[in-house]
Amino acid sequence: MNTKNDTEHTVSPSNKLSRFRNASCGVILLARCSIDVAKSVRFHVIRKDQDLSRHGCAYRRRERPKTCLKGNLIGILSEWSLLKRKRADIMTAAENVCYTLINVTNDSEPPSEVSLKTDLEKGEIKAKTEALKKVIIMILNGEKLPGLLMTIIRFVLPLQDHTIKKLLLVFWEIVPKTTPDGKLLQEMILVCDAYRKDLQHPNEFIRGSTLRFLCKLKESELLEPLMPAIRACLEHRHSYVRRNAVLAIYTIYRNFEHLIPDAPELIHDFLVNEKDASCKRNAFMMLIHADQDRALDYLSTCIDQVHTFGDILQLVIVELIYKVCHANPSERARFIRCIYNLLQSSSPAVKYEAAGTLVTLSSAPTAIKAAAQCYIDLIIKESDNNVKLIVLDRLIELKEHPTHERVLQDLVMDILRVLTTPDLEVRKKTLQLALDLVSSRNVEELVIVLKKEVIKTNNVTEHEDTDKYRQLLVRTLHSCSVRFPDMAANVIPVLMEFLSDTNEAAAADVLEFVREAIQRFDNLRPLIIEKMLEVFHAIKTVKIYRGALWILGEYCSTKEDIQSVMTEVRRSLGEIPIVENELKKEAGEVKPEEEVTAAPAPKLVTEMGTYVTQSALSTSRPSKKEEDRPPLRGFLMDGDFYVAASLATTLTKVALRYVALAEDKKRQNSFVAEAMLIMATVLHLGKSSLPKKPITDDDVDRISLCLKVLSECSPLMNDIFNKECRRSLSHMLAVRLEEEKLSQKKESEKRNVTVQADDPISFMQLTAKNEMTSKEDQFQLSLLAAMGNTQRKEAADPLASKLNKVTQLTGFSDPVYAEAYVHVNQYDIVLDVLVVNQTSDTLQNCTLELATLGDLKLVEKPSPLTLAPHDFANIKANVKVASTENGIIFGNIVYDVSGAASDRNCVVLSDIHIDIMDYIQPASCTDAEFRQMWAEFEWENKVTVNTNITDLNDYLLHILKSTNMKCLTPEKALSGICGFMAANLYARSIFGEDALANVSIEKPIHMGPDAPVNGHIRIRAKSQGMALSLGDKINLSQKKSIS
């Protein structure tokens, strides 16, 4: 026997239909009910691999679980999301419907009416059950079967089998109950008596199921005789029956108030005496929407005991308090204490909603601090990373308000407790939030915590995200030191240890920080030089070694430091001459023949995003164990002679500086000779066959130039090497700092609300509801967001912006005219199709048939409809989007002409092209991240510039506007009049896909001032669809510009 404790799959009614279609093939629509009934219930889905007779039919809906789900996304997030959906006024969503789904086998033959009648009359219980299922499916498919109605009433209705009773409720829901003229069928009187008996059935589950079914009845003649039995269910011993009775009374009161006019009073009395939490919650929710004054009266009597209530009732109380205070702000003082108490609730969902309500009701510093502290506690205690990210977003929203930001600054150390979370995305958001809130009062404590975190990353076992987390910490400390120079001295010694890290990215961030610090803070130069010399020998990557060489060569200004640099270089290079030393080491061993190989030419990417190709021809031979070699010699033996060019530049700088410092001519000559000897032996090694790859001509030229400079020691060269280089770095850092300040200023201007002296003063009592922009109902907005109806910022004229999205699907002379308004949400597309019958005939079974091309999926098939002559109707269709690429929706409209004997008529629709720009948003990244992604992404699309735009900047702006991408190249680098331009663009889709583009364009001056821009745009992405779609968009926009 089935009971209410059967194991079944439950889903929230707000979930997308496609999710169930993917889970189970052949699912059909069973029934509809208004959204308000479904808001407090969840629907059952019977999967294809489950036995329908074991679980019963999928009509039944079950209560939301009593306790909040915790610990994972399906838990607390589903709870919060579901509760938000309940917040808005029920009538605003009356036109929305909820669906019940069942599984249908597609391979079965439709039975005849005679065989079904035989099974229903004479069959066993199992045969009757199967026959009843087939009848339900046939009625759903459009069959009338009027002859079976009395058969079912006579032979099936009296049965007490629970499975049959559940199937019967489905049958009574979908079967036509009225005659064509709208009068109730006589047979339904017998059915009504059966309802009454089920409402008095001793099994509480049958009673509860029947009460839920009555919520969907729209015939008041059927409900009127049942009212005494429904009222009696309020006093049933079992809470399951009582809470369903409350839902039934609420639905009947809303639809047919004359049947139970005293419903609010009845439910108020029920609420006062009720002990069960779920029953109280349903009753209180009904009073909120039916009689808010009675709900307030009840709340006033028990406001001091709210903290002892169950979480489901507390959540509804939070909703009521918000609505009352939103409508009447003078009531805030009455309920603010209650909200404060709910911040201490044991339920995470209640704490989250109470904190959000407190922020909207009060802007007092104590209220903001309490709400922020509640959010922080939630982030730390909840284990699900998605919950942490959502609550972090709420904290970031609080920070955007200037007055709230000051309060949050005192909570920086509490926010840093979130760093105990191992998830990288959570840590990234936390560090960014802490950096935005840091001030001179708490920067020292922040730096101490970050230093401890950096040291922890060095002690833990290597993990995939450990290196990335260390990079985040280094960048945060870098930003702190730039904003608060006094902190740099405490940070640098700790970070310098990571120059010897095997993770090149983290070490590169440290090196960039050290370079900026040593240039800006003169007083820290001795400390940085000392620490650099300590770790110099332990550096393991060639890129970091080159950077360290440059810093030492640029900023060593004393004779002692210069001698130390030379000592470290000799130590890293080993015994010289290198060639003779290496040959001695190999003496006595068999020397295999040299192998000359042509390896693939490696491509390097410059700052401009263009390619530089290195020589690929190499002569290699086996060598001794490389771990025996000093680091610099190891780099050279591997054929990396770019570090040799950097070494030559460093030696030239320190040698010229030493000549200026040392008075003894002999010491001057000795130092210069040693530097020249090192360069010469490196050149000799590069020309030999010992390295894996020979030295390139560029490196030879650089080393030769340095040798020439040292041999001549001219004042001009001394000035270029020792002054101009540093001046260039200083200028670059100054420009970067100016750009950062400018971007921060723009951000602060966005957040600061400027009030002009002549701005009108708004009196809330005199303001029309549609003008109260600052008093928007947050619960209403959250409901719209959950339902996919979030209002985006449209153009100045919203009607004009909507008209831009209307696509004409058929011609004006077609018998059926159709046009579609394409509304794009984040992960789905809603097509609102207007269908107009332009003929004088009635069109029956008018069906919109759609299909998709690309990564789109049609969620449900639109239902057929009947159009009167010259009538019109709107048909809605949902399309699921899975990735960022262009998609096409195509199809036709088919219909039958009333009274015509011909075949079905068909009107082919124009294609609807889904624009990729609806999913792409501008984003930013560092130059290093751009280059790394450029090297990793395997799909490239090269687009040839073909336009009539004659100005380089105009063309770049046109591309940025057309593609929603952001230009990463600084504005100053693009300014000025020049015959060519190179710029890097970046964007990110809502699905997390990155898109890179490099614009390389020029203006052919020799063709005159009116010559159009030409060149190429290279697009790179991880997926092929993204690269191709973006290229198509650029090509399309270019064609538009030509026209």
Summarize the structure.
The protein has 43 helices and 25 strands.
The number of E-state strands comes to: 25
User: How many DSSP helices?
Assistant: 43
Oligomeric state, counting identical vs distinct chains: single chain
Shape: elongated
Class per helix and strand makeup:
alpha+beta
Helical fraction equals 40-55%
Main sheet overview: 6 strands, antiparallel
What is the rounded distance between the termini?
A: 73 Å
Percent of residues in β-strands: 5-15%
Contiguous uncertain segments of 5+ residues: 1-97, 589-601, 615-627, 768-776, 786-799
Mind telling me the C-alpha Rg? 38 Å
Average pLDDT, rounded to a whole number, is 76
Write up this protein.
The protein has 1043 residues and is α+β, with helices and mostly antiparallel strands. Helix content is 51%, strand content 14%. It has 43 helices and 25 strands. Strands 20, 21, 22, 23, 24 and 25 form a six-stranded antiparallel β-sheet that branches. A five-stranded antiparallel β-sheet has the order 10-11-12-16-14, with no helix packed on it. The longest helix has 37 residues, at 715-751. The radius of gyration is 38 Å and the shape is elongated. The relative contact order is 0.04. The model is unreliable at 1-97, 589-601, 615-627, 768-776 and 786-799 (pLDDT under 50).
Topology:
Blueprint (H helix, E strand, L loop, with lengths): L8 E3 L5 H7 L3 E8 H4 L2 E5 L6 H4 L5 E3 L9 H15 L9 E7 L9 H10 L2 H16 L8 H7 L6 H13 L13 H12 L4 H11 L5 H4 L3 H7 L5 H17 L7 H11 L3 H14 L1 H10 L9 H17 L4 H11 L5 H14 L3 H17 L3 H16 L1 H8 L2 H4 L8 H14 L5 H17 L6 H18 L4 H9 L7 H17 L4 H11 L6 H14 L3 H15 L4 H8 L9 E4 L4 E3 L5 E3 L3 E4 L10 H7 L4 H20 L3 H23 L9 H16 L2 H37 L26 H9 L11 H6 L2 E3 L7 E9 L3 E10 L5 E11 L2 E3 L6 E3 L4 E10 L5 E11 L7 E4 L3 E3 L5 E3 L4 H10 L2 E6 L7 H12 L2 E2 L3 H4 L5 E10 L4 E9 L11 E8 L2 H19 L1
